[in-house]
Amino acid sequence: MQQHRALILRSNRFLGSALVDKGLVSSGDLEEANDKFMEAIQLADLKRASILSTLLFDLKKLEEAKLLDYLAEELKLGLIDLDFVELQSLRPMNVDLSLCWASSTVPFDHVEGTYMLATCYYMSAPVIKHWEDVLDGRVIWYGTSITSLSHALERIEVIHENEDAAADDE
Fold first, then answer.
1. What angle do CA 33, 37, 41 make, to 5 degrees?
2. What is the pLDDT confidence band of residue 31, given thresholds at 50, 70 and 90?
3. Closest CA to 123 of 5, 53, 20, 3
């Protein structure tokens, strides 16, 4: 995760600014969330360093339903609940799981050279640019909830552990 520290810092800064610009949170709420975010960064707890989760769960200053409604209605983004998606290993796609945690984004399908990505950070330009650069711009974006994304990444971690165990047995 340490290799993604710059992306984590930039993506959270951009997301926070976008949330304020769109009137989803106040600048005071963002400032409070940013203090908690920087504490997590200083403790090197990068897996939990998220302005969004701080605003949603710790401070309760943002309703996730409002954010998802904004993504769907204003940005015309499709929404997906990854709890209902059969996930595969990310290794065939050459995607690092730590990047998924760092950017709150996960590729959940790959069809004919196009990747389907679910993200909680669609309003953060650095996340979009990073993934589109990594995947050569062949991306269809979907919004998802933090809970759905976290469950998906935890399921993928288990898939990777099982792959590693099977490889060790050979």
1. 170
2. very high
3. 20
CB 74 within 8 A of CB 124: no
Q: How far apart are the first and last CA of the chain?
A: 29
**Residue 21 and residue 30: Cα distance in Å, rounded?**
11
What is the per-residue pLDDT across 87-137, written as a single tens digit (0 to 9) for each? 988 988 889 999 999 999 999 999 999 999 999 999 999 999 999 999 987
How far apart, in whole angstroms, are the C-alpha atoms of residue 123 and residue 2? 23
Cα distances from 57 to residues 15, 16, 64, 105, 141, in angstroms, run 16, 15, 10, 19, 24
Tokens of 49: 């360093």
Phi, psi torsion values for 138, nearest 5 degrees: -90, 75
